[in-house]
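Subject: two folds for Thursday's group meeting

Dear M.,

Sorry for the delay on this. The cluster queue was jammed most of the week, so I only got both jobs back this morning. I'm pasting them in the order they finished. Each block is the input sequence followed by the predicted structure tokens. Could you check whether the formatting survives your parser before we put anything on slides? The first protein is the one we discussed after the seminar.
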Amino acid sequence: MAQGRGRGGVWRTRLRGDVSTKDGVLRLVEQITEKEQRVDVLINNAAIQRPWKDPISNHLDPDSIERLVWEGVDDDDWEKTHSVNVNGVYFMTAGLVPLLRKSEDPSVIVISSIAAIANQRPVSTLTYGVSKAAA
């Protein structure tokens, strides 16, 4: 856990951990609870974009793109991406509700991506874009 004063003298804490599982988040929440009496701002910024397994070489051909979208997504990539990018937001926010309630003016910020709303070409951001839109 890294702590210190950031710009403007604001106290901040940065953590590393596994937000893809409830157990991983519980360990993070324990670390925070040991050091902090309240949380004023939670920034959900954890995200992954898995490498694309691109079976199609012509990203300009609409038929190739459609095949890429439906045939190029690996189930494991889909699950892992959503575990971090969607479940992580839920687990962290729910886990910190007791400390957020102790703040006079708590805020929860979820960092999304332009990939959540924009059609990306090549379609290498399908699982990432869908997960950021869901969060």
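Second protein, same layout:
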Amino acid sequence: MLQFLDGFIFGNLVAMYLAQNYDMPNLAKKLEEIKKDMDAKKKPPSSRGHLQHWLQEILTLLFSMASFTPEPKLLSSVQSQPLL
């Protein structure tokens, strides 16, 4: 118990010294600023119709890409010759 009390008193003395001699930031104000910044960066929830429209566009694009089959290209070194 005495060891705990010594550490507690020493910690308080160090904290008082630092607070008096150095410019310590106010943590409560810093936390409020961070909270305001986080709230400002939040996106508003999107409407369901907008989300469905966006999803439909993506699916249409994917299916159009899947149905696209490019014609095979012949290598330049290999030329097709008629068979005899």
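Two things I noticed about the second structure. The radius of gyration is 35 Å. The mean pLDDT is 75.

Cheers,
T.
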